Amino acid sequence: xxxxxxxxxxxxxxxxxxxxxxxxxxxxxxxxxxxxxxxxxxxxxxxxxxxxxxxxxxxxxxxxxxxxxxxxxxxxxxxxxxxxxxxxxxxxxxxxxxxxxxxxxxxxxxxxxxxxxxxxxxxxxxxxxxxxxxxxxxxxxxxxxxxxxx
Length: 150
What we know:
Structural class: alpha/beta
Number of helices: 5
Helix content: 25-40%
Strand content: 15-25%
Distance between the termini: 25 Å
Largest sheet: 5 strands, mixed
Number of strands: 5
Order of helices and strands: HEEHHEHEEH
Strand order of the largest sheet: 2-1-3-4-5
């Protein structure tokens, strides 16, 4: 693993690896406030029998619960994969300050692919967006996961 990655993305990648080991699609997410980890989660859709249990959703829910606030405007989200439309909506509603993500998702992503959620006029909050953080590691993990299932 690339040790030059920011700590939150390394943590998100570790969570994604754990998710893969338990049969979940390997995606991890971390909510930070300054240098503090507020919440960290991985995909739990299979384990929780919940189609909304994406890593981002789990991390946002946990961060909101921990801080007792629905708005996380002083927080940043690190996630290993470009968020889908559902997660992009949650990021906007939570008013997260910045979004850092690893691999692009041409099929299901909604930030730079698909609906480009944050570019829509109906989007009320747009975080600062930084893609490609840990892109190689994230993409390799996803490719390996799906190749093993074919």
